[in-house]
Amino acid sequence: MFPSVDGRLAILAVLLVPASLVVIKAFKWLVRNRQNRPCLPPGPMPLPLLGNVLSIDTKEPWLTYTEWGATYGDLVFARLLGQEVVVTNSQHVAEALMDKRSRIYSDRPYIATALADSVGQSTLQQQFMATNGVFAGGLFHQTFRPDSALKFRLMQIKRAREMSVNLIDDPQHYHSHFATFSSSVAMSVAYGYQTSPRDDPLVRIVEDAMAIGVKVMTQERATLLKLFPFLLSLPDRCWGSAIKRDAQVSTHRMTEMTDLPFQYAQEHMAENLSLGHVSMVSDNLQRMEKLDQASKPIFETALKKATVSTIMGSYETTTATLMTFALAMVLYPDVQRRAQAEIDSVVGGDRLPTFEDRASLPYVESVLRETLRWHPILPIGGPHATSSDDIFDGYFIPKGAAVICNIWAISRDETRYPDASSFIPERFLDVDNALTDDDPARYVFGFGRRACPGRYAADASVWSAIVTMLFTMEFSSPKDDQGKVIEVTPGFTTGLIQYLVFLVSFHLLVTNSSIAIAPLWSSLAISQHALAPIQNL
After folding, report:
1. Do 218 and 347 share a domain, yes or no?
2. pTM of the model
3. Range of 488's domain?
């Protein structure tokens, strides 16, 4: 049956209204740029209305931005339908804008949220930052500032050793063991929860919630829900209702992940504090006691959402970093042997490495730095936005522009990193084998006020995992039934955590900058390192 005339008019209105919004915004952009002001940064020529959207590799936009950087320079301007975008392709420019002018460059652009809302979670910007600006600035930094992060080190070493035992006992499920390490560290930091080495019930809740998120939070579903929000209201047996059912399951699991660990932390806070198990929740619940009664519920809500954001933010990023490290050790066995030799010479054969050994292990440190640089887990950092007009290096940067830092371009700068696609830790050592001042952690964790607040704890987690694995085991290529080496051909896939950056005014998602390019390969071989005192793990 064909729709009625009124129905056709309604459909036409639905189509015309978004289109008209794009036209109006494009017209405003043209008018504004005809005014007497400095030029915009250089960039590709936009098409009418569409801008540069058709020129972007939607799966790997950082590659497009890197190509633009080679043509137009370190600061590139583009327009994606109604959204103005400024891309920084160098660390120097990113620091000049986001660090030195953080007052202007610390907003977030409008981010797609319909999908996130549908699965029971909105963006951190909505959930947390909008709750109370005073609370927002303190919750993360109170726990994760450099001196506070030191108190997690014993726990991180313990979890790294548990992971090593699991890897040696069950090497085929290395990804699962990396994920368990990541989630167990995050659960300890956030909630003071001491996880079991394997099959922990609360860790399983986290992993289940994240697993359904991988299925639900995709670009295609975000687009469908933005264009056709009625899909969330369809009867269960209707065609297309699978999105709603998946969203309901995800909502339930996200609620569990938010509430159950928090309840544990509340119920066991006194016990954990007596045992010295400090956490983000216990620290801030003590702070909450000093607030007035009206502020306490707001603070608790912000704290719950901040802690679950900690879990989500660390789970896949740490796992993917360890996957990248393991891949590098398989592909570059000489690097692995040199790092092991350094550890053996410093630690000996009677004990396991600790954080006190870190300063004496510069080559291991260079392996960590090269792991962060070689395949950055965030090839495009989280988008910033300008809160006012600005002039930089003679170029006009408009208010409301999305500002993207292209981490991939920085890490692949051949003038700074010759043979950048190869894994070469020595690039971070000088002629005396001392570490240089070049540390990729200064750019892979972001810039300015939007830099990752957990970067110091994350750095310590990854180091503890890498040094323990190097000391206790060896990574190598797998072999077939005849003992013949199977060549490892790595591939990279996008992960769960996504920054849905470019959203036009009529709610059509045009691209994203996915993170967690975790390497995938069929298998690897893990064996015990000869000097490792496994009995002490």
Report:
1. yes
2. 0.80
3. 37-536
